[in-house]
Amino acid sequence: MISRVGEDWIFLILLGLLMALVSWVMDYAIAFCQEAQKWMYGGLDSNLLLQYIAWISYPVVLITFSAGFTQILAPQAVGSGIPEMKTILRGVVLKEYLTFKTFVAKVIGLTCALGSGMPLGKEGPFVHVASLCAALLSKFMAAVFGGIYKNELRNTEMLSAACAVGVGCCFAAPIGGVLFSIEVTSTFFAVRNYWRGFFAATFSAFIFRVLAVWNQEEETITALFKTRFRLDFPFDLQELPAFAILGIACGFGGALFVYLNRLIVECMRNPSLPVRRLVYPALVTLLISTLTFPPGFGQFMAGQLTQHESLVALFDNRTWCRQGVAEEFDYISHHHAWKHPQVNVFITLILFTVMKFWMSAVATTMPVPCGAFMPVFLIGAAFGRLVGEIMATMFPDGIHAAGSVYPIVPGGYAVVGAAALSGAVTHTVSTAVIVFELTGQISHILPVMIAVILANAVAQALQPSLYDSIIRIKKLPYLPELGMGHHEKYNIRVEDIMVRDVRYITLNSSYRDLQEMLMTGQLKTLALVESRDSMILLGSIERLQLQSLLSLQLSRQRRLEYLRQLAQDNGTHDHLPSLTSDSTPSSPCTHTHLNSSTNSSAQVPVSSLMQITEWEEQQLDEPVDFKNCKIDPAPFQLVEQTSLHKVQYKQTTSNTNEIQILTINHTHKKCAIEGSVTVTGVKVRPPLASFRDSGNTTNVSEVTELHKLCIQCQV
Amino acid sequence: MISRVGEDWIFLILLGLLMALVSWVMDYAIAFCQEAQKWMYGGLDSNLLLQYIAWISYPVVLITFSAGFTQILAPQAVGSGIPEMKTILRGVVLKEYLTFKTFVAKVIGLTCALGSGMPLGKEGPFVHVASLCAALLSKFMAAVFGGIYKNELRNTEMLSAACAVGVGCCFAAPIGGVLFSIEVTSTFFAVRNYWRGFFAATFSAFIFRVLAVWNQEEETITALFKTRFRLDFPFDLQELPAFAILGIACGFGGALFVYLNRLIVECMRNPSLPVRRLVYPALVTLLISTLTFPPGFGQFMAGQLTQHESLVALFDNRTWCRQGVAEEFDYISHHHAWKHPQVNVFITLILFTVMKFWMSAVATTMPVPCGAFMPVFLIGAAFGRLVGEIMATMFPDGIHAAGSVYPIVPGGYAVVGAAALSGAVTHTVSTAVIVFELTGQISHILPVMIAVILANAVAQALQPSLYDSIIRIKKLPYLPELGMGHHEKYNIRVEDIMVRDVRYITLNSSYRDLQEMLMTGQLKTLALVESRDSMILLGSIERLQLQSLLSLQLSRQRRLEYLRQLAQDNGTHDHLPSLTSDSTPSSPCTHTHLNSSTNSSAQVPVSSLMQITEWEEQQLDEPVDFKNCKIDPAPFQLVEQTSLHKVQYKQTTSNTNEIQILTINHTHKKCAIEGSVTVTGVKVRPPLASFRDSGNTTNVSEVTELHKLCIQCQV
């Protein structure tokens, strides 16, 4: 058994190694960018204007470069990537989303975007980068070793492992990564794939942290944002209501964030607003960096700190504030940013939370590769800290009644708030696990779980998740879920939503029927039935197949043959060359063919043209010969009484076109899939299709059997 | 949306509350039992023989009572319950597994079994208890409130949430509980169900721990086996190879455990061994308690400690042994058990590991409600501690080369060993999460993950998981998985394993065909096709339906009618009463009917008997009238080219009989499902069947349409 899974192990190790390296190098580059900005800003402290210019020009240049670079190289690299991966894992093929160009654009664009210090996240794009890595690695392995690496079903399984790797090596959180990627990308999940994700994510997180040790950044492998809360009495039972309220507030906040984000995107899409692709991000960056300028407004909201520094400070296990008076906290360098001589620490925290909230919502709409997880996480931490500090002020000696004094730990509230807000925005509960792995402490498990669940309940009732929201905005071809608790859906059946006048062709259809069908319909696949009376479904044929059948029937070669025949009969040879050269472009599409043949009337004698049109008409009346046509004999069939839940089950297995036929008129919800016809570069296709093509031997027998049926019918 | 899921919330809260109470009360009772034993044993320290008798008689009585009680009340309560739940969640209905009687038997039997101090676990049975709770609660709610609680699909979803609750409230480990229950019970998993499990398990774990706080056992909510390892430098990078070796060793150990367990069960099943159901557990208990008798051999293997005490000691953060000499560790009362004046602590640990290993393997085969998780966890901890102590002896000042001295933490090895061995036995990686939640520390995440993954890789290559092993031994009707890494399965298609001469009836079949079909075949469902030539599948009919159709055709009423008709024609009335009273028992089954009509020849005149047989023959030749027959129009259809992986997908959706037809001749593997015919009390049924029955309105239209088809065919 081990030898059989050998290929998988090697693949996953390679993937983990690669992603850990990418993650680490990117972190290094980002830290370097931020250091450079600080150095520039620090060196110019004599002149405030120069300092300001240095402070704003750096991010503006980086973001503009990132936007421009991505736009030119691969516009698919823009944004988070999780919505696209969710769609791809459902079996939809999104063009150009998994190419090397996109990989380069995403990695470089992301590094620049994060290096600018804008409130952007790394985790969403990393899911995309890991998937890109997996897809490219699969292609490479298939080219070099062939065999199993060519199996497309396997590649899809590897893709879902890659999503786990992406989150895992970004946060050094393997378990949380696996769970988060499952929650975010799948509706149904094969436990078989679980170990792959675990293995790859663990390996990747391990290498990622080992690199830090080797680089002398850390003494040993520890959590990214290690906390040092006391173990013996992490929190009091009577603090739980405060945690619950924090969770509910984060739920509302999460829903508001998603709403705000969507509002901004829709505003920007307004055609009356002539926003250029580079001007918009530059303007946003200018605004945000102006507001965070440390000597200006930034001094009241810890503007000089990077995301990493802010988070370390917020997770601090000391209380910043007691009895309303801020303590001296100059022991760690970052902390003085939170303490303003004139302003209370509460004001700083409130300003930080509010300003970062809308800044993050705006910044994540910029057309650069960026995620929203980390900014939201940070806002949640700040909000949690605020609640914690208020609690610490209200109960300076802790709430515990009997005996020993256990003061309240505001850092614990920060951890809870971070998990709850990020959980609310993404509609996941696995942020709880991520937060444990990020902080290296699990002592607050109960408050975190309570807050995350409450935040999810509130946010899910108000808004879709950020990723679903983007799916809707982008009109990605994604069949929406039936929704939890919609029990009445158990009783909706296929017959309620099915299209009743499905287009089909029969075994004795003529080419004319075929032509008509192709010219009027838009469907990618057509049903083939035995005859109009029996309506026995024989299988489905792809549009492309039918088009080639039709063009073969009216092909240049056959036309030539006919003309030669005609010429032999009539003895005239004169107009032959002009005609044949003229009808050359008339192959793949019948529209152009008809046009070209009418346009050519000037050059060709009318009599022979008449003959050709006649020949064409004659050819069109012939019954279609399905002998060489590839027919898919195993489409998913749904009977009218099948319940919608079953459809959902089947749909997860493979997103076949039958279901697309089915849902295109699904009137209950405005399906995202409806948009699939208008979105360019999108091709819906069952993920197993190419796999099925590989079994050539059986296809032959299928064709033979169908041929027999043909003869039987026509007799 | 919130109002719609309201019923679920209430249900899950009730379930969580109930299970937390059960878990806590059971723990309390078990602790009481063990205290009683200790008190008895301690009070008799003047006489060794009396002490021995007290030590052994207590567990023997408890185990015998547990075995007897379970046997009498509900034999289904025996064993872990996870294999049965795995089967039930796949859509198989196991009779009597979810009844109140089983609940009582399981809870009381389990309390006694665990109170005896044998190496048995609580976690497997708790999954069963939670499922029982959920099933009973569903039934209760359906009876009181009706409505949504009657939906069977919903109840199945609640059942999977209940499994998470079971693990969650047993270990106070909500996240690990959810993941463990998913890994153990499902092959495919709906993310939709995820939040239910999380919510219920969290709530349950919360209540479970709050009860301990209210009972003054704890100051606040903390982990069950709280560890206090240092946070700043939990382990050195150079210790990782040792952790990896520990993981691999645990993998082999886990496989050996499963093998040993199966061997013992198969030995006991040997018919030549006349083992009584009560004698066997009594003998096993006698043997084990004799060996653990503290003044006897037990002194070398910490025999006087309960599982809980042993685990607390093993997870201790101090080093027991330095430079080969045991330190003084008399600060905690349990620790002196590990320190023998004459014997090295290594010997104690080795003896503990080896003895507990086979004892646990034997004890878990006793016919009482018991699980194997906790004993295995304990053995793993002891083995890990052993490795850790050896490491600490070898590197007394830690391995770290540069600067500060960080001594090795043997307790960390114990944690890693516990997770790895339990992961290897159950084939899960979520034991890693359980161990974090149990100890309240996540600092050893990387070693734990590495060891668990390696242990899983080794164990999965050698043996099935303990639960799959039990499924095979018990011959539960379970379709085995395709196995990971079996890439060639992607190319196995249905046609390779399908049965080609499927029995079917056509629309113009006569009742005679039906009779023949019913008498020769064994299948639960029969296919209905349009005609022998067209072979269009119209749907499937249950055997029961056909039997009632047949008995209706030959019913007493119709027989009477015919005789009356006959009498009117002939003018003779004399033999009518005797005949009608005689043919009364001839209803449900045709066999008995035929017998009874031949037996009755003594009483009835031969001529009228002849007439009746003639009438019967005539009736049998009539074409079947399917008008009132319930036909399932939406069975899963598989086409020959469907790949086996697709079948597996479909199979998880609902374990329909079509698939049973398919797999019954599956020669590649000895399917567990083959046993389903011989095992009594087992009924395979699609979980959606009863749901489909509820939609009466559509059934009418189905019947009408089929009726039309009937007429069309017969014309």
Automatic annotation (TrEMBL), chains A, B:
It is found in: Membrane. GO terms for molecular function: voltage-gated chloride channel activity. It is a multi-pass membrane protein. Residues 571-603 are annotated as: Disordered. One of its GO terms (cellular component) is plasma membrane. Gene3D superfamilies: CBS-domain, Clc chloride channel. The keyword Transcription regulation does not apply. Keywords: CBS domain, Chloride, Chloride channel, Ion channel, Ion transport, Membrane, Repeat, Transmembrane, Transmembrane helix, Transport. Residues 577-601 have a biased composition (Low complexity). It comes from the Eukaryota. Its main location: membrane. The chain crosses the membrane at residues 9-32, 52-78, 98-120, 126-149, 161-182, 194-214, 235-258, 278-297, 343-366, 372-392, 413-436, 442-462. The keyword Transmembrane helix applies. Signal peptide: none annotated. This is Chloride channel protein. It comes from Astatotilapia calliptera. The gene is CLCN2.
